[in-house]
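Model it.
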Amino acid sequence: MDARNDDRSLGELFGELTRQMTTLVRQEVELARTEMTANASRVARSAAMLIAGGVIAYAVVLALVAAVIIGLATLGMPAWLSALLVGAVVVIVGVILAQRGIQAVKGHDLAPRRTIETLKEDAELARGRTR
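Modeled.
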C-alpha cells in the first residue's frame, strides 16, 4: 500500500479488504470450475475409449467364443459341455478386464489441486492482513 493511503479510516480499510476478498473468492471459484471441467473432460475421454474398446472386444469375443465352442464340439466334446467350458473361461477373462478398467478410471485425480493450494495461500494472506 502507498504511504499516502495511511490516513484512511478503519471503515475504509475494512471496505477495501471486503472488496478484495470478494474478488479473490470469485477468482478462486472460477479457477475451481475451470480445473474441474478439465478433469471431467479427461475422465470422459478415458471412459469413451474404455467403452469403445469394450464394444469392439465384445464383438470379437463373441465370434471367437462361437468358433471355440464349435471347434470343441467338432472334436467330439458334447456341445453343452464345450459351451459351458468356454463360458467359464470367458467369465474369468471378463472379470480381469473389468477390474483393470475400474483401476484405470480410479487413477484420475478429480480434486482441484491448484485451487486448494491457492485457497490455502489466500487464507494465510487474509490472516496476515487482519493482524
